Amino acid sequence: MKFVYFGILFYLSLYAHSQQKMKLPPYLKKGDTVAIVCTARKFMPEEAKPAIELLESWGLKAKLGRTIGLDSCQLGGTDVERAADLQQMMDDDNVKAIWCARGGYGTVRIIDLLDFTKFSKKPKWVMGFSDVTVLHSHLNTLGIATLHSIMPFTVPNAPEKVKQTLKDALFGTKLNYTLPSKSYDVKGKAEGELVGGNISILYSLLGSSSSISTQGKILFIEDLDEYLYHVDRMMYNLKRNGYFENAKGIIVGSMRDMHDNEIPFGQNEVQIITAIAKEYNIPIAFEFCAGHQKDNRTLVFGSHVSFEVNDKEIQLQFK
């Protein structure tokens, strides 16, 4: 009976989390300040110039964190330094949004050093992708929306249309995306909260307090430079943790530079994801314009969206 009791509590907690109302941070206005910080790999001040110029062209001010320019092997400062910098920007009332400088690895090393008490009461937009999925996921469990977007490191190679999607999201202009569908997309319609990020990070967070709920939601996943059997392993682990059982749909972004072994795995990334998710009869869109590619358009995680895949188009509309 104890196992039944705790099982019921577990699923009730998942349901409660899936039903919570997400907080959208205030949209920006001209004159607002955006902080740029390192939560993972190092980033030099000269590398920040294109991002600063972009923010200023939108009428915003840039504030470089203390971690910009720090060099701790791969990382932009020690764990303590990166956590302290992010904490200061989260608690600074003059900072209205936080832009993570670049991905790589390292955000998970500081997530448990952060105090989100004040931030939860007065949230602000956190922006980035890849390793920033740690923050996307953790903030989602706290009921706070975030922006999956380009980062200062990727600004120089980002097309204007991609930069515009970040500006639109920050200033409160509604995002709508329509793309041609492919023969291997899985047709269907769905509505729900958009969640997700880099699949390797989502996989690494399973079982922790930062792991998201996908119940009644639409899951976005993307990755770069992985072996196909790694993708298969991660997908099976997400499946075994219930990620697809109650999801409403799957959007697959860029899955670039996948590798195979000398003895082929036998399936590509599309076939792997399709086979594992087939039993759930949910719409799946592949090669969506987000992730590790130049066409990395902004997604509002935590926002309610409508998602449709038909014979001609993929439509993603933010409510």
Automatic annotation (TrEMBL):
<feature type="active site" description="Nucleophile">
    <location>
        <position position="130"/>
    </location>
</feature>
<dbReference type="InterPro" id="IPR029062">
    <property type="entry name" value="Class_I_gatase-like"/>
</dbReference>
<keyword id="KW-0720">Serine protease</keyword>
<feature type="active site" description="Charge relay system">
    <location>
        <position position="292"/>
    </location>
</feature>
<feature type="domain" description="LD-carboxypeptidase N-terminal">
    <location>
        <begin position="34"/>
        <end position="148"/>
    </location>
</feature>
<comment type="similarity">
    <text>Belongs to the peptidase S66 family.</text>
</comment>
<dbReference type="GO" id="GO:0004180">
    <property type="term" value="F:carboxypeptidase activity"/>
</dbReference>
<dbReference type="InterPro" id="IPR027478">
    <property type="entry name" value="LdcA_N"/>
</dbReference>
<dbReference type="InterPro" id="IPR040921">
    <property type="entry name" value="Peptidase_S66C"/>
</dbReference>
<keyword id="KW-0378">Hydrolase</keyword>
<dbReference type="GO" id="GO:0006508">
    <property type="term" value="P:proteolysis"/>
</dbReference>
<dbReference type="GO" id="GO:0008236">
    <property type="term" value="F:serine-type peptidase activity"/>
</dbReference>
<dbReference type="Pfam" id="PF02016">
    <property type="entry name" value="Peptidase_S66"/>
</dbReference>
<keyword id="KW-0645">Protease</keyword>
<feature type="active site" description="Charge relay system">
    <location>
        <position position="222"/>
    </location>
</feature>
<feature type="domain" description="LD-carboxypeptidase C-terminal">
    <location>
        <begin position="191"/>
        <end position="305"/>
    </location>
</feature>
<protein>
    <submittedName>
        <fullName>LD-carboxypeptidase</fullName>
    </submittedName>
</protein>
<dbReference type="InterPro" id="IPR040449">
    <property type="entry name" value="Peptidase_S66_N"/>
</dbReference>
<keyword id="KW-0121">Carboxypeptidase</keyword>
<dbReference type="Pfam" id="PF17676">
    <property type="entry name" value="Peptidase_S66C"/>
</dbReference>
<dbReference type="InterPro" id="IPR003507">
    <property type="entry name" value="S66_fam"/>
</dbReference>
<dbReference type="InterPro" id="IPR027461">
    <property type="entry name" value="Carboxypeptidase_A_C_sf"/>
</dbReference>
